[in-house]
Amino acid sequence: MLNTALARVHMVMAALYFVVCAGIVLKVLHTGGKAQMEAVIILTLIFALPVGLHALAFAGVRQGKSWARGLSRAVGILLLLSIPIGTIIGIFILRRTRGADWEAGATGTSPPARS
């Protein structure tokens, strides 16, 4: 697997968004009400975007696709706005998509030492 750490971050984030969405949907369905189906549909659509982006990035990074680097960067930049934990994850993603780190992940070697 190429860029294993980055792929794992995308996999965990997709799973986390899915679990949070499922929990919120179950809570909405449990409370009942007239507009519950509309709320479930809206919540599902809102959470489908981050789940889909992380899942797509995971698949691309895992296969070593060059487009996955750009997608990972875009996701990382969006995560920077989610202070504080999203910022940390976004910084990690952006660091793993830098030139030396991306190539090191693709070749399985460690990045060159920085002085």
Give keywords.
mainly alpha; 0% strand; 115 residues; single chain
Q: Overview of this structure, please?
A:
This protein has one domain. The longest helix has 28 residues. With 115 residues, the protein is an all-alpha fold. Helix content is 79%, strand content 0%. The chain is elongated and about 55 Å long. Helix 2 packs across helix 3 and helix 3 packs antiparallel against helix 4. The chain is built from 5 helices and no strands. The chain starts with a helix and ends in an 8-residue tail after the last helix.
The number of helices is 5
Q: Summarize model confidence as the mean pLDDT.
A: 86
Task: Determine the N-to-C terminus distance.
Answer: 29 Å
Number of strands: 0
Helix content: over 70%
Which descriptor suits the 3D outline? Answer: elongated
Q: What fraction strand?
A: under 5%
Q: Tell me about the largest β-sheet.
A: none
User: What is the CA-based Rg, rounded?
Assistant: 17 Å
Poorly predicted sequence stretches spanning 5 or more consecutive residues: none
Going by helix content, strand content and strand pairing, the class is mainly alpha
Number of domains: 1
Topology order in helix (H) and strand (E) letters: HHHHH
